[in-house]
Design goal:
The complex is a heterodimer of chains A (376) and B (344). Chain A is built from 14 helices and 17 strands. By secondary structure, chain A is of the alpha/beta class. Chain A is elongated. The model of chain A has no long low-confidence stretch (mean pLDDT 91). A six-stranded mixed β-sheet of chain A has the order 6-7-8-3-9-10, sandwiched between helices. Chain A has a five-stranded parallel β-sheet with strand order 15-14-13-16-17, with helices on both faces. Chain A has a four-stranded antiparallel β-sheet with strand order 2-1-4-5, covered by helices on one side. Chain B is an all-alpha fold and 344 residues long. Chain B has helices at 3-29, 37-44, 51-86, 98-115, 122-144, 150-173, 177-187, 196-215, 217-223, 227-232, 237-259, 265-277, 282-306, 315-340. The longest helix of chain B is centred in the N-terminal third of the chain and has 36 residues, at 51-86. Chain B starts with a helix and ends with a helix. The model of chain B is unreliable at 340-344 (pLDDT under 50). Classes of the chains: A alpha/beta (376), B mainly alpha (344). Chains A and B meet through helix 2 and strand 6 of A and helix 9 and helix 10 of B.
């Protein structure tokens, strides 16, 4: 059996002659997950539809399990590839078991009657996706998260080599998103299925995908392991982000910082500053953060949210000129907040900053700067 | 398979078969001169040679009962195919104007041949009705690409029906006096003019179309989940769509050619049958709709003949009385579902 369940070579996907995404070249092994990311309307769904043979490829090649896609018949393809789409199913008098059982379609005879073995496959698929207790429930009456589990069971019951998932996590709450993605990874690994999944949630793509393909400006812009994609400012440029930035270390986005001259100086460290940075950012007060070691947990967030960050090199004591920089900036600020209770050998400079602020009468608490949160 | 489900299916089919047989026999017995069961049996088996009874039974009642049975079934299956095609529970040959399209072409044919002193052959009528059905269907399909929701589709169909009816009325108005009596009865929907000669084409067309529909049951079941999922299951969408259109048009054309337009059977019966069987699975619902339609139309025809005897109602009047409330109920139910459902 071919190692790559799916290979494409300079594939162009689109409608009619209108190319939506060009230059798609990637390969998926058994058990591997490829995430498609890109801005709204970039053509993620179009790419999936083209691979699923619902749209003809405009140019380029698709090979499925080593065979050119053009040589595979509809029914053969149905036994190799299953899909989970974004469109909502409107079922009529169908139990979840009935819906999952539709996955056996390519394996049944002329009347579509399932054999005992087919039913066992369906039930097993429902067990794998943890929805066997829903078997008799009406599909139109269950929650969105449960629906996705049943649809995933349907896709698995089809015993595919390739699974195409179009935004399987949209409409789900955070815990169901994690549940579905973990399930997809488990199924990919255990059933040795190659998975292509389009995702809006970058943090999920970063954490669950083995490869990430970025579609942007009508072409496949980058393809590679998440570590190379979620790096530096590429994500911001991929999505044309104006109002914030993506933090690769956490896989989160942070809103745009107010880069005006700082009014508040925050002495943080060890994560103690994070909630204060967020409150100041919400109140749109420009602030400086320091002195932070570059390996401090809150350093990336301070970088994203603060107008100025005074940083010290990792694992080194704070240098004298760094301290004097900090003092200059602090003195230009109206207020100073100091969050750590005590200081260690490496950040003695921060203790000095605190002393200076206290003697200058600038040391405040956050409540003094920002009136208590009316919502809490 | 679940035992309870299996019992429900067996019970459902048993109920429909028993009802169909009883109503069919009752339809033969009742009429301006009622026949008792024994007499009926004797005439049928040839032990009673009374030529009068023979004529009543074999020339009048039997063809009519068989036609009501088969055409009722045909209408329901046609309705089910259209509902599956448009994914719309209130689609049917009557509301979508397909019956009216067939009625128009058949009326044109009848007038054309009668002016030349011929009478239209049964197959000619079916051909004309089929052409009319397809033309109306084509118009609905063109419009369905442009309209967004199911209500708009139905309104478009009803309008097409009105246009066809208006043209039919116009044609009838200018037709010869002698043609009108016949045309008028037929154009309101009635099994009364169906004679023995019409039975052969009816039996052939309905049998072939029914078998064709059952053969489509598997792809239709995949189509119920939506086009993309059907495609992923390996269904040839173009072929399936063409098959559904042709079969539903042929079935409703056959009905219209011989009995005129009959309202609401195509919507009401599949709906009731789905409720009875607790499923929408085509492999079950297609044969069950056929039986259900046969029961429904046999009963309605009996009422049309008997209620105000000797005056006869059009069968469409009776089917509308029972069918239309069911359509309203479906719409109310759908609305309630929209408001209540989808709570993430």
């Amino acid at each position: 059996m071919a190692e790559h369940v799916l290979k494409t070579e300079s594939l162009a996907a689109g409608y009619g002659k209108q190319i939506v995404a060009d230059g798609l070249t990637f390969r998926i092994r058994r058990g591997e997950i490829l995430a498609l990311i890109g801005p709204n309307g970039a053509g993620k769904s179009t790419v999936l539809k083209t691979i699923a043979a619902q749209l003809p490829a405009i140019s380029g090649k698709i090979a499925i399990c080593g065979m050119p896609a053009a040589e595979i018949s509809r029914s053969q393809l149905a036994q190799k590839m299953s899909v989970l789409l974004t469109e909502r199913l409107r079922t009529e008098r169908m139990s979840c078991l009935d819906v999952a059982a539709t996955g056996r379609y390519p394996y049944t005879g002329i009347f579509g009657v399932l054999s005992e073995q087919d039913w066992n496959t369906v039930r097993h698929a429902m067990q794998l996706t943890g929805c066997e207790q829903l078997a008799d429930a009406d599909f139109s009456q269950i929650s969105d998260g449960q629906r996705q589990c049943v649809m995933l069971a349907r896709a698995i019951a089809q015993e595919p080599e390739i699974l195409l998932l179009d935004e399987p996590t949209s409409f789900l709450d955070i815990s169901h998103k994690m549940q579905i993605m973990s399930m997809i990874r488990k199924l990919a690994r255990e059933q040795q299925i190659g998975v292509i999944v389009s995702l809006h949630e970058l943090e999920l793509a970063q954490k669950y995908a083995d490869q990430v393909l970025c579609i942007h400006n009508g072409k496949a812009e980058r393809c590679g392991p998440p570590e190379t994609i979620f790096d530096g400012d590429y994500i911001a440029s991929l999505y044309g982000m104006q109002d914030g930035r993506f933090l690769p270390a956490f896989g989160t986005v942070e809103p745009q910082a107010n880069r005006d001259a700082p009014q508040v100086f925050v002495i943080g460290g060890g994560g103690s500053g994070i909630p204060v940075y967020r409150r100041l950012q919400r109140a749109d007060i420009p602030f400086a953060a320091g002195i932070l070691h570059e390996n401090d947990v809150e350093y990336p967030i301070a970088k994203a949210l603060a107008s100025v960050v005074i940083a010290a090199r990792a694992f080194e004591p704070i240098a004298q000129d760094t301290l004097s920089d900090a003092i200059t900036i602090m003195q230009a600020c109206r207020d100073v907040l100091c969050l750590p209770e005590s200081f260690g050998t490496m950040n003695q400079a921060n203790a000095e900053l605190r002393k200076l602020a206290e003697s200058g009468g600038k040391l405040r608490t956050i409540e003094q700067i920002l009136p208590p949160d009316p919502f809490s | 398979m679940n035992r309870a489900k299996e019992m429900r299916r067996i019970g459902g089919f048993a109920l429909l078969i028993v009802l169909a047989l009883c109503l069919f026999v009752l339809n033969l017995m009742l009429g301006s001169g009622s026949l008792r069961g024994i007499v009926l049996f004797d005439v049928l088996s040839g032990r009673n040679p009374d030529p009068m009874l023979h004529r009543i039974l074999f020339d009048i009642r039997l063809p009519r009962a068989v036609a009501a049975f088969l055409l009722g079934g045909a209408l329901s299956v046609s309705g089910f195919l259209l509902q599956s095609f448009f994914r719309n529970p209130i689609a049917g040959p009557f509301v979508l104007g397909i019956s009216s399209g067939a009625k128009l072409t058949v009326a044109l044919l009848m007038i054309a041949v009668s002016q030349n002193q011929y009478s239209a052959s049964a197959s000619g009528m079916v051909a004309a009705a089929f052409a009319g059905s397809l033309i109306a269907m084509g118009a609905v399909l063109l419009l369905s690409g442009k309209v967004q929701n199911m209500a708009q589709l139905i309104i478009a169909g009803v309008m097409i029906g009105y246009i066809c009816n208006a043209v039919t009325e116009l044609v009838i108005t200018f037709a010869d006096e002698s043609n009108i009596v016949n045309l008028h009865n037929w154009s309101r929907g009635s099994f009364s003019s169906i004679g023995r000669t019409a039975l052969f084409p009816i039996v052939c067309i309905v049998t072939v179309s029914l078998i064709g529909s059952v053969l489509l049951a598997k792809p239709i079941s995949a189509y119920q989940l939506g086009e993309s999922y059907a495609q992923n299951a390996g269904v040839n969408l173009k072929l399936l769509r063409a098959g559904m259109i042709l079969l539903s048009s042929l079935l409703s054309a056959c009905v219209t050619a011989f009995a005129g337009p009959i309202s609401f059977v195509g919507i009401a019966v599949p709906h009731l049958v789905k409720a009875l069987f607790g499923t929408a699975r085509p492999l079950i619902i297609i044969p069950a709709s056929f039986l259900g339609g046969a029961v429904f139309c046999t009963a309605c025809d009996m009422l049309a003949r008997m209620l105000f005897a000797p005056t006869e109602l059009s069968v469409s009047t009776v089917t509308a009385v029972f069918g239309a409330p069911i359509v309203i109920q479906i719409m109310l139910h759908r609305n309630a579902e929209k408001r209540g459902g989808h709570n993430g």
